[in-house]
Write a structure and sequence with these properties.
Keywords: Coiled coil
Distance between the termini: 154 Å
Radius of gyration: 49 Å
Shape: rod-shaped
Order of helices and strands: HH
């Protein structure tokens, strides 16, 4: 199998392109170190910002939780008051119904006596 001399040169050039350039190792390392340091510093600032946001959210949630506990306590108190009012209202309503029943019974008894009186008057 024969190779073309032009292809061999291209192949050698590709191989050379793939080999890292070590002629300036100090400058590449220092640039890489500086970039890494900058990235780490940016990451630290970002993390500090996130930590601050988390602390604010925690404080906000804690405040809201306190408000919700107070609201729940108020609602329980209102519920107890409503139960008591309902019980009182139910007792009063029962008393009214009993009074109305007594009045109807009295009215019926009175009408019955009146009819008996009229019947007796007709007989006389």
């Amino acid at each position: 199998m024969e190779t073309n001399p032009k292809e061999e040169k291209e192949s050698e050039k590709e191989t050379e392109d793939q080999v890292p350039d070590n002629t300036q190792p100090e400058s590449l390392e220092s640039v890489s170190f500086e970039e890494t340091a900058d990235r780490l510093e940016q990451l630290m600032k970002s993390m500090e910002g996130l930590l601050s946001d988390v602390e604010q959210l925690r404080s906000h949630c804690s405040h809201q939780a306190t408000e919700l506990m107070h609201a729940a306590t108020d609602l329980r108190q209102q519920q107890d008051e409503l139960r008591e009012s309902y019980s009182e209202f139910s007792r009063e309503m029962q008393e009214i119904m009993d009074t109305v029943d007594d009045l109807f019974n009295t009215k019926s008894a009175f009408e019955a006596k009146e009819q008996e009186t009229q019947k007796l008057n007709r007989q006389l």
